[in-house]
Specification:
Radius of gyration: 18 Å
Oligomer: single chain
Shape: globular
Structural class: mainly alpha
Largest sheet: none
Order of helices and strands: HHHHHHHHHH
Strand content: under 5%
Distance between the termini: 51 Å
Helix content: over 70%
Length: 184
């Protein structure tokens, strides 16, 4: 692909992510995505064979490594794609056929990875395995909620939570919280 094709492909993903977050997967069409990118609908198929593939590509870009890197990578990905948390919540609230894809491509792998990273035995800080899984859920909610609630927090706090410095501050906070909760 040429550079212009890469830019168009990225623009398609950005437009689709925004539409899916606002209207849900089922409520969005390839024509609407094309309109947002200012190309003809048939041109979308040069980049992605279907709306489902676009959705899978958006979700697949959200992966993680380990420990601090996992939190940093996740926060950075969400900062680069601030509509993705809304898309995730929209899908969780509305269900639909894309929920299973989101679970398969994003959540199950992410939670398996987080579970493997959890401390055990004396390193678990007194937390039981069940409590550690709840802790993972809580950290996930802190990640997603940070972005979905950004418009409200911007108004209430008078600071842009999506600025680079605020993202860095939140990332450091999540790392510190995780470290303190796991390592008493």
């Amino acid at each position: 692909m040429a550079n212009s094709s890469l830019r168009t492909a990225d623009r398609i993903l950005d437009a689709a992510e925004e539409l899916f977050a606002a209207k849900g997967f089922e409520g969005s069409s390839m024509s609407e995505i094309a309109d947002r990118v200012e190309i003809r609908a048939p041109s979308l198929y040069k980049h992605y064979e279907s709306k489902e593939k676009i959705y899978e590509f958006i979700a697949a870009g959200f992966s993680a490594r380990s420990g601090r890197e996992q939190l940093e990578q996740t926060m950075q990905h969400l900062a680069n794609h601030p509509n993705l948390p809304r898309l995730i919540q929209m899908q969780a609230l509305t269900g639909g056929e894309q929920l299973e894809k989101l679970l398969v491509t994003l959540y199950r792998p992410l939670f398996r990875k987080a579970t493997r990273l959890m401390p055990s035995g004396s390193d678990a800080g007194g937390w039981s395995p069940a409590q550690l899984r709840l802790l993972i859920m809580g950290i996930n909610n802190m990640l997603i909620g940070y972005f979905t609630m950004a418009p409200i927090h911007r108004e209430v706090l008078g600071k842009d939570p999506l600025s680079k410095s605020a993202i860095r501050e939140q990332t450091d906070f999540l790392v510190a919280v995780t470290r303190k909760l796991w390592m008493q």
